[in-house]
Amino acid sequence: KAGVTQTPRYLIKTRGQQVTLSCSPISGHRSVSWYQQTPGQGLQFLFEYFSETQRNKGNFPGRFSGRQFSNSRSEMNVSTLELGDSALYLCASSPGGDTGELFFGEGSRLTVL
Amino acid sequence: DAKTTQPPSMDCAEGRAANLPCNHSTISGNEYVYWYRQIHSQGPQYIIHGLKNNETNEMASLIITEDRKSSTLILPHATLRDTAVYYCIVRALRLLNDYKLSFGAGTTVTVRA
User: Fold this and answer.
1) pLDDT range class, residue A78, cuts 50, 70, 90
2) Rg (CA), chain A
3) For chain A, is the Cβ count within 10 Å smaller at the N or the C terminus?
4) Nearest Cα to Cα of residue A113 among A12, A19, A20
5) pLDDT tier, A98 (very low <50, low <70, confident <90, very high otherwise)
6) How far is B104 from chain A (nearest CA, A)?
């Protein structure tokens, strides 16, 4: 079974630009969550989608948004990029249920110059 | 969710068992203990979780003390590929469908040949 796939793996943007990251969950998984990881702040929750609906949201500004499609694939968008947005963005999928187990992708490493 | 305390680093000889401690003295009765690890530049990988009974899978064993205030992750025969940052987290049962996951600093495990 294929794992969680994130694209692109690496990208470089400049301040003020916007970026869209993509995540394809494991087949059959309906929950997709997004996280930002930086050396200083560690892993921080962005938002979670289930069946195309945002169920949970972390404490990030409105510049960070996401969506989920009917095939469970998800995208996140960051507008008006700032230097502090440089991070590893991780996507995780879950089958749901009562295990709480998350399967992470390799991440998209964003550098903002 | 209850906070966890882990040693910042530990070394282990290849082929030997690695015992990773975690303190969670404020854990509640409905909180599970989860372990993840993150190999450099990769996404976190689920290892194991448990509520109060000891658990074992193909990757590791989880030993939870009777009072549930601490636990130990055991890698029975450490290999060089087990070098990673290991995260211990606790999550409430009611939040298992709420993926506001956050990792602390974790334990950096270095397996030496």
Assistant:
1) very high
2) 13
3) N
4) A12
5) low
6) 7
